[in-house]
Here is the input.
Amino acid sequence: METIKISDKNSQYQLSSSAVLLTGLRWVTGWLFFSAFWRRLILENKLDPDGIGYVGEKFNHFFPNAIFVKPMIHFMITHPDFLQIFLIVFTIIEALVGLGLLFGIFTRASALGVFLLSFGILFGAGWLGTTCLDEWQIGAFGIIAGLIMIVAGADKFSLDRLLLSRLTKLKEKKWFKYMGSGDINISNRIFTYISLFIAMFSLIITLYTNQVFHGGVWGKLHNLSMKPNIVISETKYDKVKGLRFDLFRDQGIDTYGAFITRISLKDENGELLEEYSYSELSKIPDGDIENYYIAKVKKGKNSLIIPLGAKAKVTLPITVSKEGGYWIEVEDISGKVWKESFRIQN
Here is the structure.
């Protein structure tokens, strides 16, 4: 049976062997996506918002340096109920897509699912990876694998072909031809153009994201997952509540928090006015940490813990007697210090 027939005026080439050759690619790709469902629901329940390892927090980790899909991620991490529905649907789709490729049923539709899911992974999480560019590699691989299997479909080792051999009327159904693995007749010229487009499109996306996320094509290499970075913003002084400011961690490893051991207030000349040490930060009242997202800034035994992607408004009962310029300093357990200047005016 032919998966695709390529013909021109003088010759006809049967590419059923190509689909057979891609069987291993189809099975491996199918397991990569089905295993996400398997790990998330069967081996452990990672869809429980109150459980350890909740996948919503990992989704929050994508947010700081995502491209194109960042507004969508921001909407979901600020709407937890909607995010929970999304994660359930996303997990079900991963399972169906994975099973579709493993068994070769509705192969082209499943391959389209792989392509779209990989797009989201690449642009959302392609910047993550501490020891290697793992999320970027998975996304780039999924895009090219999905596109190839959309064209090739499946052949001998698939339910699509079994159904076609048993139910001959399916051969006449266009919907099964394009969703499953029915025979598609195209000219040699068009097939060449399709193949070239897939190759060029996949390479361009790969090079573009490699450069944007990691500087991997030219310039200086960088890995935003290696070291934490804290962004201090919206610093304001309230005469009643004290000093209020936002802390947002936009870089660093996703499995480990930044541990803040000191927050200091200094005047514009650098003179220390007030300081909160690790022991005091660990006792901040819960009401003085107002979290924005799923990943939460929280108190630790000896520090203030900020997971990747977490953002919170922190209030410290600091009294400032006069207007002017000031500095706020935030220090991590590693000794790294972040500063932000602001002014107080009556």
Summary: The longest strand covers residues 229-238.
